[in-house]
Write a structure and sequence with these properties.
Shape of chain A: extended
Helix content of chain B: over 70%
Number of helices of chain A: 23
Distance between the termini of chain A: 33 Å
Helix content of chain A: 55-70%
Shape of chain B: elongated
Radius of gyration of chain B: 22 Å
Number of strands of chain A: 16
Oligomer: heterodimer
Strand content of chain A: 5-15%
Number of helices of chain B: 6
Distance between the termini of chain B: 28 Å
Structural class of chain A: alpha+beta
Order of helices and strands of chain B: HHHHHH
Number of strands of chain B: 0
Radius of gyration of chain A: 40 Å
Largest sheet of chain B: none
Largest interface: A-B, 27 and 28 residues
Strand content of chain B: under 5%
């Protein structure tokens, strides 16, 4: 019930069964394969390299991914967001997965998809082009001249363009004065600039150009192939775009049809990812002429399973197990009772224990549960949280770690509800608003069941929270002592931990001696002296110089302040508990203020709903984080070393389906 | 109505002069109001600044990886608690002086000042811790963008700052609890 026992293994086998053996190991999902350092043990062995094969799988995978991405873009959005959480993953047998992948020609599918994608891109491109032309011509809608044929005239020349309004009059005058048979017409008058057309003889070109330059006339040149007046061209363009979008729709329909006919593509993707994983692992193996070696880690409980499976299928192999050495970086897997398991989430968030220390999760789980209940401390919120997490666990399709997290929340909800009973908080003070006929419910729930009334008299609850802090800090120190004893450092443990325990106990007894029989006062003084004496004499023991020794011993007494602040830090439990209740009460009061006839009841319900959801989120989040912080900062720092690497078994990693492994004997 | 009100107010002022020899132009309840206003306003401002700082970093991160929305939102929400603590203390003050009951308590200036000072811890600590928690949250958002596996640590860092807002809340509640009305 703690850090799972792990063994090192070597498998030596004939090269001919390499693929099959790896596949078997992958299906077993219980070994982690690590890189073999070929220099240490096996001089003339080589790494296995099949780069060609690997790149094949990767490119296949990319192709399939391309198809899936394309499908997902155009598919009816039936499996998005919450919906996809609600639909459980399809469970498929490994052998079926292989046969499906073998018989489906995803190469062909990829070609089709690529073609469709190309066409769709082209359509998009031309659509954009047409749109740009239409926008450009939109400004010349009023011009009733064919834009192409207007420049084909023998003697007459047209200039179209825009000019600033304040130049327009002078410009027109000058054009008419300087060039014969010219005319300037306004096509469209704008706010600052106007669109105009100049009609003139070809021989006047130079003069006109001079004038246009002088007055900053911006010539508009039509460069597109469509003929007709601007209005006609725009109409034509609209028709063309419609055609294009129709074409697009038919292609999309075809795509949807193809995607519906090729649902297996997701299975192929999973199959290929499994293969990719396997090929990546192959690089860790080394081989001689005829044999190869796999080195890895396995949990002790799985050894029999591995042995049986391998000896059932293969003969040309040898497997050796050995204990991990101190210098090995052993991966860590936690193994706890079902009730404690969800709390591994909290430990993992901090860091896994290293392989050679004790898993703190079982002890942590008790404290985490109590503290969360203390912080949330509302029956209503607790029950809602528990129900929601229960539904999430059973109705949603979640991965292993997400499920674990929701189970943690489920326990947290129960803790919150229990805490709520103690402080008499049911959605704050909502029971006070019950009609008089039901006030007996309130009397039982709040007056009889609750032990504390923090809004009236906060001190007992505050003392309780600090007392819990003292207990947890003591637990931390004792755990460190036990750890020292286990390592055979009994003396260190006595000097470092037990002397502190004596001193702290002395201080606490001294502080509360008024409430205890007088004998405890003497005991307190005794403990204080023993504690201080041992700390001063032992804490500087690494120093050789006797004066330095005592000096650093005295200095170490300064650590009292850190213990003091650690314990005071637990007062947050009380503050958060109070906060939940008061915010809830506040919303209840706000809701009852809506005393409008008929509509009032609806507004009341809306305020209650929004307010309590908000409070549940905020208080739940605070409870979660501050509870975790107490574990990490106040508890773990006393004894926990951490730094473990997680055990990641070589397994069938899939995205769209769940592969079920069946024993075919 | 108006002259009548002025009359009672003057009477009260004269009584005050009789009692103390000086004239306070303020009423105890005004000071209590000031306390509640400071608690709600300052702590809320601190939270707003903090959430804002975290939010700008968060949006920057999300331009690169929009899938981080959930985590970023969580970290952005962390500096928001100070505002709630402030509101909570303000609410406690208002209930203490009976605003919600319809008949406000008559407070002496002493009582008013006591309530005002009770509000100061959460007002001051809420304001500053909100800002600094926002900065820490912004840092944490940067952390999860580069190392998503360190989410646990990223969430605990801002909570270290919040400790002092919680302690200030505790102080305010205890002080307020000690005021005799």
């Amino acid at each position: 019930m703690a850090v799972s026992k792990i063994k090192k293994f070597h498998i030596f086998a004939h090269l001919s069964i390499r693929e099959l053996l790896l596949k078997e190991l992958q299906k077993l999902e219980c070994v982690e394969i690590m890189e073999l350092d070929k220099k240490t043990a096996f001089h003339d062995w080589k790494n296995i390299k099949d780069e060609d094969k690997e790149s094949n799988v990767v490119s296949d995978l990319n192709r399939v991914k391309f198809c899936i991405d394309l499908f997902s873009k155009y598919q009816v959005k039936e499996s998005k967001g919450l919906q996809s959480l609600l639909t459980k993953k399809e469970i498929i047998k490994y052998d079926d997965l292989v046969s499906i992948s073998k018989k489906t020609d995803y190469e062909l599918l990829h070609q089709q998809c690529k073609e469709f994608d190309k066409q769709l891109n082209q359509i998009k491109l031309s659509e954009n082009k047409l749109k740009a032309i239409a926008e450009e011509l939109n400004e010349w809608k009023e011009l009733e001249i064919d834009l192409i044929s207007m420049n084909e005239s023998k003697y007459i020349e047209y200039y179209i363009g825009s000019i600033a309004n304040n130049n327009l009059e002078k410009f027109t005058e000058e054009v008419i004065k300087q060039s014969k048979y010219s005319e300037v017409k306004i096509v469209k008058e704008g706010k600052n600039t106007s669109k105009i057309i100049i009609i003139t003889l070809k021989e006047n070109r130079d003069k006109i150009l001079n004038i246009t330059q002088k007055y900053h006339f911006e010539n508009y040149k039509y460069t597109h192939p469509y003929t007709g007046t601007p209005a006609e061209i725009i109409k034509k363009i609209n028709e063309l775009s419609e055609e294009l979008s129709e074409k697009k729709v038919t292609i999309e329909k075809q795509l949807i049809e193809i995607s519906n006919n090729n649902k297996d593509i997701y299975k192929i993707y999973d199959y290929l990812s499994i293969n990719k994983e396997k090929d990546e692992i192959s690089r860790y193996l080394i081989k001689s002429e005829n044999t190869f070696v796999i080195k890895g880690w396995i949990q002790e409980k799985d050894i029999q399973k591995l042995k049986h499976r391998l000896s059932d299928r293969f003969t040309a192999f040898e497997i050796i197990f050995s204990d991990p050495k101190k210098k090995d970086k052993v991966p860590v897997a936690l193994e706890n009772h079902k009730l404690v398991q969800p709390f591994e989430v909290i430990t993992e968030l901090y860091s896994l224990p290293n392989y050679f220390e004790v898993d703190p999760t079982p002890i942590l789980s008790i404290y985490y549960f109590i503290f969360f209940g203390f912080c949330l401390s509302d029956v209503g919120y607790g029950v809602v949280l528990a129900i929601l997490s229960y539904l999430a666990i059973h109705k949603l399709s979640l991965g292993y770690s997400a499920k674990k997290f929701f189970r943690l929340l489920y326990y947290c909800g129960i803790a919150g509800a229990i805490g709520g009973v103690f402080v008499g908080s049911w959605f704050g003070d909502i029971l006070n608003y019950l009609p008089p006929a039901f006030s007996w419910i309130r009397n039982i729930m709040v007056d009889k069941l609750s032990l504390f009334n923090p809004t009236e008299n906060p001190i007992p609850l505050l003392i309780l929270s600090i007392a819990l802090g003292v207990i947890q800090v003591y637990t931390g120190i004792i755990l460190k002592f036990l750890d020292n004893v286990k390592r055979g450092k009994m003396i260190d443990g006595l000097m470092d931990q037990i002397s502190w325990l004596l001193l702290l106990t002395g201080i606490i007894l001294f502080l509360i001696k008024g409430m205890l029989p007088s004998i405890f006062g003497t005991i307190a003084i005794l403990f204080l002296f023993i504690g201080v004496f041992t700390l001063i004499t032992t804490q500087g023991r690494t120093n050789k110089n006797i004066i330095m020794r005592i000096g650093s011993g005295i200095l170490s007494l300064y650590d009292i302040t850190s213990y003091f602040s650690d314990v005071l830090s637990y007062s947050r439990l009380f503050a958060l508990s109070l906060a939940t209740g008061i915010i809830a009460t506040m919303f209840n009061m706000l809701a009852t203020m809506a005393n409008i006839p008929y509509v009032g009841i609806i507004i009341t319900i809306i305020i209650l709903f929004i307010g309590h959801v908000f409070n549940l989120l905020i208080s739940g989040l605070s409870a979660f984080i501050h509870d975790a912080r107490l574990q990490y900062v106040e508890f773990f720092t006393k004894f926990y070393q951490a730094g473990g690497i997680p055990f990641k078994p070589f397994s069938l990693k899939t995205t769209y389906t769940k592969v079920e492994e069946i024993d075919t004997k | 109505m108006y002259p009548n009100l002025q009359h009672t107010y003057l009477q009260k002022t004269f009584k005050e002069i009789d009692k103390r020899g000086i004239c306070f132009m303020i009423d105890g309840i005004v000071l209590a109001y000031l306390g509640a206003a400071l608690a709600i306003g300052l702590a809320g401002s601190g939270s707003a600044i903090g959430v804002g700082i975290a939010g700008t970093t968060g949006t920057g991160i999300m331009t690169e990886d929009p899938s981080k929305f959930g985590l970023v939102l969580l970290l952005q929400a962390l500096p928001g608690t100070q505002g709630i603590y402030g509101l909570l203390v303000g609410f406690l003050v208002l209930t203490r002086i009976g605003i919600f009951g319809g008949t406000p308590a008559v407070l002496t200036v002493d009582q008013g000042l006591q309530i005002l000072f009770s509000c100061l811890p959460i007002a001051i600590a809420g304001f500053f811790s909100g800002i600094y928690q926002g900065k820490t949250s912004a840092g944490s958002i940067g952390l999860i963008s580069r190392r998503p596996e360190e989410t646990g640590k990223a969430v605990v860092m801002p909570a270290m700052v919040e400790t002092y807002a919680v302690l200030a809340l505790l102080g305010s509640i205890l002080l307020l609890n000690g005021v005799v009305i």
